[in-house]
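Sample intake sheet
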Amino acid sequence: MMKIALFAVVLALGLQAQTIAKREANQQARINEGVRSGTLTKAEAARLEAQQVALRKEVRRDRIDGGGLSAAERAKIDRQQNRQSTRISRQKTDGQTRP
């Protein structure tokens, strides 16, 4: 019984880490698509890229500091990813285009 519980915890932690990475990859793909389609200017894309890098570094630092992500850290990262997603959407639809 203990092995099953331990396996469930390890699996859940792995899925949460995968979800964070999957969302980050999805947001990166959205930025790349905006650059390709011209809906993001170079300045907008550079700013969004820098924010992605900062979030990636924070996730890495949080994982190292406590030996993994706490529930509070995961919630904070989720909020940050939500804000980043909103920023990407707003920048892609703000009417500015690359010349």
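Comment: The mean pLDDT is 86. The longest helix spans residues 2-37.
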